[in-house]
């Protein structure tokens, strides 16, 4: 089982599977379940679900995972379902943003350069990085917003005897006040995390718990700020044991029981290109098609398969009937849109081509060349990865997928 960021596209996940094959983790002819993919916040949710009993979470309770890592912060909300064993239902569309702990590092680097601007030309790069290491390893995880922090200047800086109270420099020590660390380093980033949590809470309407996981999730100050903002509205704000390992341990649980999650929320509208009755005054004249039978059709219409934000069972299958002329194969192009409203056309803003699926024609000895062959295309959108199959004459066949460039 491999974990992938929640913001990854279908193509990115397919590329990960291809890389795993090239690396020898799986073989091309292995069953697809030989390698399973799971999003990082979902894996973390499975880990926290194992801890739900100790946190007294029960049937119908909702909890949010705030997976705060180095680069991104991903959020997901699940509801506990105990009607047939302990299961999880995703109940809001997950969200993520680039506001992880590396952005604290960037702001800290900027603060140090501001403080030492008069001496930058004389400070060796290694000495500057030594101060950054001190921040990353000691100050960042332990900072509580109250205590001032101190950095011992490396001897190579040759500033040990310099006193400059204006920048907090005295006797070879740099004092960073709690106030300036909050204002210049922590608060701008943590406010983004809190805004993400607020958005998810509004969508979920209620939460019984918020779990902070990931490397950044272990930050004392992040916990205190989330507790401060949501403690009165959410019953529990907690950091589970070994929260930095929540994703990898959750991936193990998923491998052992991939059916714990029963419902997911699609991040996109999915559909295909089709034609519909042309509407004068609504559809562009350039999309008008007049067929031989006199009917007037509109080209490039977006025919919806899956609605963005609507709960979807993991085994949900959308079936569409097609036909091909033997022995020729047929293709199907899938489109997606990350828009609030349902797109009308496959050319509308926000719509992009996901992939072309080629359905190979099997050898059918009883069929003559040029004869029409009925087939059914089945698309599975509730799984972590998009899966497309074709049913021809009662047998199921895989499809060849070519993802569009991003």
TrEMBL record:
Q: Which InterPro entries does this UniProt record tie to the protein?
A: ATPase_NBD, Hsp_70_fam
Q: Which UniProt keywords apply?
A: ATP-binding, Nucleotide-binding
Gene Ontology molecular function, alphabetical:
ATP binding; ATP-dependent protein folding chaperone
What is the protein named? Heat shock 70 kDa protein 12A
What organism is recorded for this protein?
Rhizopus stolonifer (Rhizopus nigricans)
Taxonomic lineage is: Eukaryota, Fungi, Fungi incertae sedis, Mucoromycota, Mucoromycotina
């Amino acid at each position: 089982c491999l974990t992938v960021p929640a913001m990854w596209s279908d193509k990115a996940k397919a590329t990960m599977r291809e890389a795993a094959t090239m690396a020898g983790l799986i073989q091309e002819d292995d069953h697809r379940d030989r390698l399973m993919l799971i999003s990082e916040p979902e894996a973390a949710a499975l880990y926290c679900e194992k801890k739900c009993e100790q946190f007294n979470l029960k049937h119908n309770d909702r909890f949010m995972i705030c997976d705060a890592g180095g680069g991104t912060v991903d959020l997901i909300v699940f509801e506990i379902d105990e009607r047939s064993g302990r299961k999880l239902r995703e109940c809001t569309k997950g969200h993520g943003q680039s506001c992880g702990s590396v952005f604290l590092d960037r702001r800290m680097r900027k603060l140090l350069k501001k403080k030492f601007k008069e001496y930058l030309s004389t400070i060796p790069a290694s000495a500057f990085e030594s101060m950054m290491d001190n921040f990353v390893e000691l100050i960042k995880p332990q900072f509580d917003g109250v205590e001032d922090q101190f950095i011992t200047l490396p001897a190579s800086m040759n500033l040990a005897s310099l006193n400059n109270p204006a920048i907090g420099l005295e006797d070879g020590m740099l004092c960073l006040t709690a106030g300036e660390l909050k204002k210049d380093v922590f608060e701008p980033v943590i406010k983004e995390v809190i805004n993400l949590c607020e958005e998810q809470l509004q969508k979920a309407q209620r939460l019984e718990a918020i779990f902070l996981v990931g490397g950044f999730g272990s930050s004392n100050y992040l916990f205190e700020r989330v507790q401060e903002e949501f403690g009165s509205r959410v019953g529990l704000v907690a950091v589970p044991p070994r929260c930095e390992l929540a994703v990898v341990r959750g991936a193990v649980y998923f491998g052992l029981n991939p059916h714990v999650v029963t419902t997911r929320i699609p991040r996109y509208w999915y559909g295909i290109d089709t034609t519909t009755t042309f509407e004068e005054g609504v559809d562009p004249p350039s999309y008008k098609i007049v067929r031989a039978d006199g009917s007037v059709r509109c080209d490039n219409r977006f025919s919806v398969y899956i609605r963005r934000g609507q709960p979807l069972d993991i085994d949900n299958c959308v079936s569409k009937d097609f036909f091909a002329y033997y022995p020729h194969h047929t293709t199907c192009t899938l489109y997606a849109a990350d828009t609030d409203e349902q797109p009308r056309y496959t050319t509308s803003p926000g719509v992009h081509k996901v992939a072309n699926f080629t359905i190979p024609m099997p050898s059918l000895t009883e069929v003559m060349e040029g004869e029409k062959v009925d087939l059914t295309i089945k698309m599975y959108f509730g799984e972590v990865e998009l899966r497309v199959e074709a049913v021809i004459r009662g047998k199921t066949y895989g499809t060849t997928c070519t993802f569009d460039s991003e």
